[in-house]
Amino acid sequence: SLITYAESIKTVIEKHVESGLLGKTELLRSVKDITLLEMERGTLAREYDNSLNLLGTLWGANYGTVKNLSGELHAVRIIRLHDTLKSQLEMSPVLRSSLAGIEAAKAVEAENKSQGYPELMVKGGVIRDSESDVNKFTIGATIGLPIFNRNSSAVIAAGKRSEASDEKSKAVRNELNAKLIECDAAIGMLEYKANELKEKVIPQTEEVLKELRRLFAAGKSSYMELITTQRELVEAWRDYLNTETEIRLVMADIIELTGQSNQE
């Protein structure tokens, strides 16, 4: 569409040159601008084809099978996270892995507590027999109280590991919660920016460009002013598309954190 627009402007410039309203320099600039636009279109087309081939490869398709993609980039608003933050958080693979570590540590602690055994002690010594006035060797076995050894060293160690796992889980939960809140806030700000660009900035710039084109055709506006506004329109569109891309990247972060998409 930009090339079509630039070619129509070139036609106007040719008429102005013929009538003496503009010099040939403006025509040469117009031709150069069209050449740059065609070069950019060719580059983008090649990048698009390469991306389709890479996408097809990821999907396991034969090279060149995927020909095009379609759909609306921003069809619906993103569902806000804070309404389902708790459920989203509990689904996190990272948190589930941490909770599994706690359960494993508690299982080891319970196992060590159950591994009691009788505390048998064997003692020996020498005693003096007062009747015979001789020393005698003695040996005997005793069972101390409590009757069962509580395997205290292993139990304490297992308990420490259990406590450490529990603390780690709390830290993981807090970190995930903070990241999800940050993602939710980021999406809100990016959506606001995208909507403002699409609903206000881009239409307003298009109106300015339309008016400048009318003035230029009437010989009341300069070519450079026209091109500058056209570039502003292109940059507004790029800013919008980049913002939409950032939204998708944040959504990817949410999916990675929670293991599921937050969008129906």
Largest sheet: 2 strands, antiparallel
Q: Give start-end ranges of low-pLDDT stretches.
A: none
Write the H/E string, N to C: HHHHEEHH
The side-by-side strand order for the widest beta sheet comes to 1-2
How large is the share of residues in beta strands? 5-15%
Q: What is the molecular shape?
A: rod-shaped
Mean pLDDT: 77
Structural class: mainly alpha
Q: Could you please describe the fold and organization of this structure?
A:
The chain has helices spanning 2-19, 24-58, 85-90, 93-114, 152-217, 223-258; strands at 117-129, 134-149. It starts with a helix and ends in a 6-residue tail after the last helix. The protein has a two-stranded antiparallel sheet. Helix 1 packs antiparallel against helix 2, helix 4 packs antiparallel against helix 5 (152-217) and helix 5 (152-217) packs antiparallel against helix 6 (223-258). The chain is mostly helical.
Set down the secondary structure blueprint.
Blueprint: H1 2-19, H2 24-58, H3 85-90, H4 93-114, E1 117-129, E2 134-149, H5 152-217, H6 223-258
Antiparallel strand pairs: 1-2
Helix pairs in contact: 1-2, 4-5, 5-6
